[in-house]
Amino acid sequence: MLLAHLVAALVAPILVRAVGRNAFYPLALVPAASAVWLATIDPRTLGEAPREVAVPWIPAFGIDLAFRLDTLSWVLALIATGIGAIVLLYCARYFKDTEPGLGRFAAVLTAFAGAMVGLVLADDVMVIYTFWELTTVFSYLLIGHYQDKQASRRAALNALISTTAGGLAMLVGLLMVASSAGTLRLSAIVADPMWQDPGPYLITAMVLILAGATTKSALLPTHFWLPGAMAAPTPVSAYLHAAAMVKAGVYLILRLAPALTHLEILSIILAVLGAATMLLGGWRALRQTDIKLLLAYGTVSQLGFLAAVAGLATHDAVMAGLAMLIAHAVFKAPLFMVVGIIDKKFGTRDLRVLSGVGKAAPVVAVIGIVSAASMAAVPPLYGFVAKESIYTALWEAGGWQRGLLFALVAGSVLTVAYSWRFVVGAFGPAPGAPRVASARIPVLFWLPPAVVALGTVALPFVTAPLEEVLRAYSSVLPETGEGIYLAVIPHLGVPLLLSLVTLGLGAALCAVAKPFAKLQKKVSPLTWASEGAMDAFDAERGFRRILRSTDALSVAITPLFQRGSLPYTLGTMLVVLVALVAPVALTQSPLPDNLVLFQHPAEMLVLPVAALAAIGAARSRRRLRAVFLITVTGYAVAVLFLAAGAPDVATTQVLVETAMTVVLVLVLRRLPIHFSRRPLRIGSWGRWGIAIATALVLCGGTLYAADARYREALGKGLIEPAYEQGGGHNVVNVTLVDARVWDTMGEISVLLVVATGVASLIFVTRRERPIARVRDIDSSRTSIWRRRADSDLPQNALDFDARPDEVAGGNRWRTWLSAGLTLAPERRMVILEVITRIVFPMMMMFSVYLLMAGHNLPGGGFAGGLVAGLALAVRYLAGGRYELSEAMPLQAGFVLGAGMALAVASGVLPVFFGGTIFAQVTPVVDVPLLGELKFPIALLFDLGVYLVVVGVMLDFLRTLGAQIDQQQEADADAR
User: Fold this and answer.
1) Banded model confidence at residue 779, pLDDT cuts 50, 70, 90
2) Are 897 and 888 in contact (CB under 8 A)?
3) Omega into 380 within 30° of 0, i.e. cis?
4) Would you give the DSSP letter of residue 53?
5) Strand partners, 65
6) How far apart are the C-alpha atoms of 579 and 666, rounded to whole Å?
């Protein structure tokens, strides 16, 4: 079911683009098929033998994709899929083909239906939380469908923040109870014996979980987001806020009922919150003139009713609560759909101007009146049957639950009153308003709400089997009183009397509607409260005030720590690091017992050099000197690696430090020679204090981390597998290109991104420019590192002729480098050119040697690529950008792409030899004179790494070198 909803959501935009609003019809088949499949299962058998399935998801943490179908989840899943299918059918006539964002809306609504099904079926607490938050995100997108309307955006934000905050609290609570129970399965958690004697820990955890449930089901004080969500399209209200999302909180309370049985104090809290929410929602509903908003506050009221009853966690209360949950779905969803029809066909939802809709649309009126009557619990409709069972359960339970009963009776009186207000306002005459014109309402528009409303008429005829289904879940809870039944004709007694009183007082309240409205206006805080006091009485205004205060606080605090100063920002981070680690470090012994000060005599010589270089770099005022001193510390670390028996790592360290030094020197051309002004002495001492404290913390943490080893090092165990499985003696290289090849693939991908990012910062226009070769250069304009205007050189020293000798003649200038004459004469260094002419081919041969030998000896593609990149850097430093083009007449992007392509190919090729992705394959080739040579597939991957590294170095030289050269020359020309 979940995969089907996912696929349908993905193809929804394509369907809408192809067939317009009619795409909702095929989309409705997915939840409809799910509902049919659920209907084929006998829910009575699920009570004793739930269906379970689990697939490992994150085995290291014991998290599984675990799903469990019992009676409770069957009821909720059937509601979510059945009404979801009908709402999708309704959407096909509600929207027009020209509706903006219709494809996105269809996809999100379908995905939401799948997320709701996943939520009620999930058994692993992490999976539950995942689907919980998916419903939050999807509801945010649906509520904010009309992006051009501020009310929609604000309502979506209110819903997102409120429900997300509660969801985070719920996650903490779920993890707490999972830790206590030793399992992540919610079914096992609620059945654990720990609930027999709950302590403060479990009570706190349950409070956090219920915080998520109450925010999701819009109980006080977060009730305000639900009426605001009515800014969404009406199908969203009919589904999310009548049959699906807002039921999630009530579902969670029902799911936790076995645990709540032992926590009576929490049941009392839920009862108080639920009753208060029911009264407040009913009170506010009677003041609304927008019939959709009237129903929204009615939903708030009904959710309070459901939460109060579900929180009692007794056999009778849970059964009655489930019956009422079904009743609410089958009468509230059609009511919202009826409102959508009225809004679309008559252009307004204001009951003050709607006049004669009942006569203009009699079928729609019948649907709305029947559903509203069920909401008001008029017998013999199913709403009456469900509410009567609640009255009976509370009366039979006795004690404080009878007090709750009278509060719910008061709320039900308001329910009768706003149900009548809806009927009269939507379908009756409106004083002083002209009668609406008749409208043609297609059958497919009113048929979906009619199908759902049919349930409120049909369910009373199947109360006996329905009761048996609901008892399959509630039977695990303790029984109170003498037991209750779902009965169309209830027994004579106090509950029936209370039902009659509810209807009678509701009718009386309808009769005095105008005086009651005046009373409401007088007692309303809007009439007498000050502007500041309104935040205490209006939950939404208070919520907005909190958001504004949070924004103001962030605006005040952010400049204190983010001043745009790199030293200040770095200092703040390091101080926080020290403050977090120091208290823990102070509780440890001064040094580990097994500390070895020195393992090699070279360390005693290298460490002082590294320390002095680091201190010198910190004190240096010249940038270039600081760069070289930092390089010294890197070389010192390489010596330590070599002393520790890691020549591979030492080689890479030396090459990386050298390459970084070259890159930094190129960058320094665009920076001032000196650092900025030194800080005051007190600031200098502060910086030294932070630096020393950070050094102590990091060194201490490293020492204790090494001391915390409880397993033997992996190195010895890798030697034999490296040769037997990887076919190489160099354990480091085999590990990188075989055992952890995916990590290396990720690393070269990062290199690719870094090169792209650096290039984007330097190139002003477009990146890939034609490679300028010496033979194509206009000699009249050739001169990089422009010579000084006052230089006095003979003309023949400035002549440049790249033609061959037989064309240029015998007097042609000769240079050691291919593009030596492109430099201004006084800029040339002949000694460097001679050295480059000799060293470059040797470096390239050495880089190839490192590449080929890396599988058995120190080296590899990374080290070889760095050597080749440094060779190119030598050519550039000696001869400039044209010399670099002669050395590598290819675009850096081409080299990078070729390297990535080879790396990917090395992973795919083993598949064609019967292996798996990145499997080790070693073809053997007979070469004359050389004999049998092995060419492991890892060599191809290493060649890809080699090319990527060369491409990165080439990109750096072209961007930070050649491109900056051109920019400087352009600046000189401008001056």
Assistant:
1) low
2) no
3) yes
4) E
5) 55
6) 38
Contact criterion met (CB below 8 Å) for 352 and 433: yes
The reported pLDDT for the residue numbered 609 is: 93
Q: Which two tokens stand for residue 359?
A: 């006569």
Distance, CA of 246 to CA of 166 (rounded, Å): 13
Which residue has tokens 């939404």? 540
Nearest to 884 by CA among 784, 754, 797, 810: 784
Nearest to 839 by CA among 862, 866, 807, 871: 871
pLDDT of residue 812: 47
CA distance 744 to 941: 10
Spatial contact of 893 and 767, defined as CB atoms under 8 Å apart:
yes
Helices (H), 512-538: 513-523, 525-528, 534-537
Specify the amino acid at residue 400: W
Task: For residues 123 and 121, give the distance between their C-alpha atoms in angstroms, rounded to a whole number.
Answer: 7
Please state the three-class secondary structure of 124-150 as a single string: EHHHHHHHHHHHHHHHHHHHCCCCCCH
Residue 841 has pLDDT above 90, yes or no: yes
Can you read off the two tokens belonging to residue 428?
Answer: 């009756």
Residues 6+ apart with CB under 8 A from 937: 906, 909, 910, 919, 920, 921, 922, 923
CA separation for the pair 855, 587 (Å, rounded)? 46
Report yes or no: 249 and 305 within 8 Å, Cβ to Cβ. no
Helix (H) or strand (E) holding 22: none
SS3 content of the chain, % helix, strand, coil (to 5): 70, 5, 25
Rounded to whole angstroms, the Cα distance separating 262 from 313 reads 9
Q: How far, in whole angstroms, is CA 513 from its chain's centroid?
A: 49
- Kindly state the tokens that stand for 832: 């460097």
- Which pLDDT score is estimated for 782? 47
pLDDT at 924: 76
User: Which is higher by pLDDT, 357 or 937?
Assistant: 357
What per-residue confidence (pLDDT) applies to 532?
65
483 secondary structure, DSSP code: -
Terminus-to-terminus CA distance in the chain, angstroms?
Answer: 71
Query: What does the buried/exposed string (b/e) look like for 533-569 if buried means 16 or more CB atoms within 10 Å of the residue's CB?
Result: eebeebbbeebbeeeeeeeeeeeeeeeeeeeeeeeee
Both structure tokens of 17: 């683009």
Task: List 53's β-bridge partners, or say none.
Answer: 67
CA distance 131 to 105: 19
719's tokens: 């030697």
Backbone angles phi, psi at 42, to 5 degrees: -80, 110
Contact at 8 Å (CB) between 652 and 945? no
Do residues 723 and 922 lie in contact, with contact meaning Cβ atoms separated by under 8 Å? no
Alpha-carbon dihedral angle through residues 291, 292, 297, 299, given to the nearest 10 degrees: 120
CB 373 within 8 A of CB 383: yes
Residue reference for tokens 């696929």: 7
Give the span between the Cα atoms of 361 and 341, in whole angstroms: 10
Q: Is the peptide bond before 221 cis (omega within 30 degrees of 0)?
A: yes
Q: Quick: pLDDT tens for 565-598.
A: 788 888 889 999 999 988 887 777 667 677 777 7
For 37-46, the CB contacts below 8 A with 24+ separation are 37/1, 38/74, 38/77, 38/78, 38/81, 39/78, 41/69, 41/74, 43/71, 43/74, 43/75, 43/469, 43/472, 44/71, 44/468, 44/469, 44/472, 46/70, 46/71, 46/74, 46/472
User: Mean of the pLDDT values across residues 220-224?
Assistant: 88
Report which of 415, 321, 331 is spatially closest to residue 381, judged by C-alpha positions. 331
Q: Which amino acid is at 510?
A: C
As given in the structure block, the two tokens for residue 147 are: 């992006």
Tokens for 348, please give them.
């307004």
User: Cα separations (Å) of 630 from 260, 338, 565, 610, 633?
Assistant: 63, 74, 22, 9, 5
